[in-house]
Amino acid sequence: MFPDHETATGWPSVHGRKNDRPCRRGGGLAFALACLCLPSVGAVAEEETPEEKGLRIARESSARNDGFGDFTAAMTMVLRDRQGRESVRQMRFKVLEVPGDGDRSLFVFDQPRDVQGTALLTHAHVNTQDDQWLYLPALKRVKRISASRRSGSFMGSEFSYEDMSSPEVDEYTYKYLRDEPCGDLMCTVTEQIPLDEKSGYSRKVTWQDIGELRVWKMELYDRRDSHLKTLTFVNYQQYLDRYWRAEEQTMVNHLTGASTVLRWTDFQFGRGIDESEFTQTALRRVR
Questions:
Q1: Burial group, residue 170, by CB count within 10 angstroms (0-12, 13-18, 19+)
Q2: Which of 87, 148, 260, 279 is the S-S candidate for 157 at Cβ 3.0 to 4.6 Å?
Q3: Long-range contacts of 224-233, Cβ-Cβ distance < 8 Å, separation of 24 or more
Q4: Cis peptide upstream of residue 137 (ω within 30 degrees of 0)
Q5: CB 96, CB 70: distance < 8 Å
């Protein structure tokens, strides 16, 4: 289920890294988190309920990733079926932070040739359903992804369209479950329940390290509350002395035995991306 470079327990080894350091003032990612001078996750307020603590952790996680502005990255998608046969796709990714609303993001396929130019545009929103459009170059057509189809597979992968959208805090209710070891770290475990009745998931259970609130594992449950998929994150790197991004994410489908690995490279922040690059008109001009 987990990548080979994780420990035998399924958790990544972080020997040699100081992961529980205090936050620094003036310090120089689903999917990543920043380090701000905020209250410790482990500090439970008097009379705080599990629901209140779960919401507090979610808000702190979101706040730690605020302020990045924009960034670009390259991505390799590796699809594996139950028999271990692989197919590989290359993509470009860019995202723009929008104050007062959700992020704008764009995936563009470069290889192989049969999917070259295919692009997914997402406008995430804070208090309403996200908007998503898929551009199909063979048809020269922009296709809107309806809310009822967001649980469907994204380009044959184990990630759904819903998974490719940046989650907002107000889209879920929360419950703190427990703290427990996760490899060399101590993790806080929380449950998230989508408020959207058309979500493909009934709930998500997330493991985040207490020191930096990076997500290391997420269990995804279908509408019948069966454990459908597990998403794991490894090889975190920090950018601008603040923002954490995982270099690899693996989604395993426990129903089909298939998996999809996303390998991220070449993160670049502060590219000066304009909001006009995230429109349906711009989607038709993607190269």
A1: middle
A2: 260
A3: 226/255, 227/254, 228/201, 228/253, 228/254, 228/255, 229/158, 229/253, 229/254, 230/1, 230/254, 231/163, 232/1, 232/2, 232/3, 232/6, 232/10, 233/31
A4: no
A5: yes
Q: Give the integer Cα–Cα distance in Å for 263 and 286.
A: 22
Distance CA 87, CA 108 (A): 17
Tell me which amino acid residue 165 is: S
Give the number of other CB atoms < 10 A from CB of residue 99: 6
| Cα–Cα distance measured from residue 135 to residue 225, given in angstroms and rounded to the nearest whole number | 33
* Cβ neighbours of 12 (radius 10 Å): 25
Model confidence pTM above 0.90: no
Say if CB 222 and CB 228 are below 8 A apart: yes
Tokens 């290889």 belong to residue: 111
Q: Which two tokens stand for residue 233?
A: 């994150």
Q: Closest Cα partner for 121 from 67, 166, 169? A: 166
DSSP three-state, residue 16: coil
Q: Name the phi and psi angles at 232, rounded to 5.
A: -120, 150
